[in-house]
Amino acid sequence: MKKKRMRNKKNISVKAHKKRKHGIMDKEKAAQNVSPVVKKYWFQRYNLFSKYDKGIKMDEEGWYSVTPEQIAIRHALRCVAAIAKPKPVVIDCFAGVGGNAIQFARMCCSVVAIDIDPKRLELAINNAKIYGVQHCIDFIVGDFFQLAPSLKGDIVFLAPPWGGPSYKSIENFTLDFLKPRDGFTIFQFAQAITPNIIMFLPRNVDLQQVEELSWLSSPPLEVEIEENYLQNNVKGVTAYFGGAACH
Ligand code: ADP
């Protein structure tokens, strides 16, 4: 009896070992199939989406621009803490592949996710399904600047394109490096919707300029700036304005 049990145990462990080995080989193969630019980010895939293996889809831009999951969770927690109502409406104006929109939705926010590129929103919809939150997000294909006058929400979330990985080589990232328009213009459009704004910016952003954004309002908006770390590395800077700032 004892012998039989031991043999079974051994069989199971051989199978598990084969499966593990297979899994590692599959992952190595997958890593070889990605472009050199993406490779570096691919190794951080679980930092970007913890459910990566469940079928997350990305394009090249998504790999280097999506907000890492832990930082997106932080944004969502702050959003819920700032707006004292059960289902705050968050407008994610440059939604990309959905990194932030998904976490807002998971935190019970009602989300409007806007992107000018339908292919990117398709990826975002797929990714939201993986997290089971697609029903909490209204996906809108369109130009934020055209849509802004008709939008209503409790918080506007801005993670505008930083201009690709080359942003790192800029010593002082001024707000006019942001795409598709400079940071002041983007902020003014957001401000017309609500003074409660969260803006995710590169770690080398000109902090003086970020503070100046609050002066676009009269009286000036409260502003709070934090650095966002991931595994001891600064990944970005988040500026909270108006009701989104800690009072
Ligand atoms: P994420 O980090 O969430 O993946 P990205 O930084 O990749 O987001 O997203 C920037 C997104 O902004 C891109 O998907 C791009 O298509 C989108 N975008 C650029 N211009 C506009 C615009 N005028 N209106 C709405 N979305 C835009």
Automatic annotation (TrEMBL):
Q: Which domain of life is it from?
A: Eukaryota
Compositional bias of kind Basic residues = 1-22
User: Which is a Gene Ontology cellular component entry for this protein?
Assistant: cytoplasm
Q: Which UniProt keywords apply?
A: Cytoplasm, Methyltransferase, Nucleus, Phosphoprotein, S-adenosyl-L-methionine, Transcription, Transcription regulation, Transferase
* One Gene Ontology term of the molecular function aspect: RNA cap trimethylguanosine synthase activity
Q: Is Methyltransferase there in the keyword field?
A: yes
TM annotation in the entry: none
Compartment(s) where it occurs, according to its Swiss-Prot or TrEMBL record: Cytoplasm; Nucleus, Cajal body; Nucleus, Nucleolus
Q: Which SUPFAM superfamilies match?
A: S-adenosyl-L-methionine-dependent methyltransferases
- Please report a single Pfam family linked to this protein: Methyltransf_15
Please list where the region (Disordered) is annotated: 1-25
Catalyses:
a 5'-end (N(2),N(7)-dimethyl 5'-triphosphoguanosine)-ribonucleoside in snRNA + S-adenosyl-L-methionine = a 5'-end (N(2),N(2),N(7)-trimethyl 5'-triphosphoguanosine)-ribonucleoside in snRNA + S-adenosyl-L-homocysteine + H(+); a 5'-end (N(7)-methyl 5'-triphosphoguanosine)-ribonucleoside in snRNA + S-adenosyl-L-methionine = a 5'-end (N(2),N(7)-dimethyl 5'-triphosphoguanosine)-ribonucleoside in snRNA + S-adenosyl-L-homocysteine + H(+); a 5'-end (N(2),N(7)-dimethyl 5'-triphosphoguanosine)-ribonucleoside in snoRNA + S-adenosyl-L-methionine = a 5'-end (N(2),N(2),N(7)-trimethyl 5'-triphosphoguanosine)-ribonucleoside in snoRNA + S-adenosyl-L-homocysteine + H(+); a 5'-end (N(7)-methyl 5'-triphosphoguanosine)-ribonucleoside in snoRNA + S-adenosyl-L-methionine = a 5'-end (N(2),N(7)-dimethyl 5'-triphosphoguanosine)-ribonucleoside in snoRNA + S-adenosyl-L-homocysteine + H(+)
Q: Briefly, what is this protein's role?
A: Catalyzes the 2 serial methylation steps for the conversion of the 7-monomethylguanosine (m(7)G) caps of snRNAs and snoRNAs to a 2,2,7-trimethylguanosine (m(2,2,7)G) cap structure. The enzyme is specific for guanine, and N7 methylation must precede N2 methylation. Hypermethylation of the m7G cap of U snRNAs leads to their concentration in nuclear foci, their colocalization with coilin and the formation of canonical Cajal bodies (CBs). Plays a role in transcriptional regulation.
According to the record's subunit comment, the protein's assembly and interactions are: May form homooligomers. Interacts with CREBBP/CBP, EED/WAIT1, EP300/P300, NCOA6/PRIP, PPARBP/PBP and SMN.
Q: Which family does it belong to?
A: Belongs to the methyltransferase superfamily. Trimethylguanosine synthase family.
Name of this protein:
Trimethylguanosine synthase
Q: Which organism is it from?
A: Quercus rubra
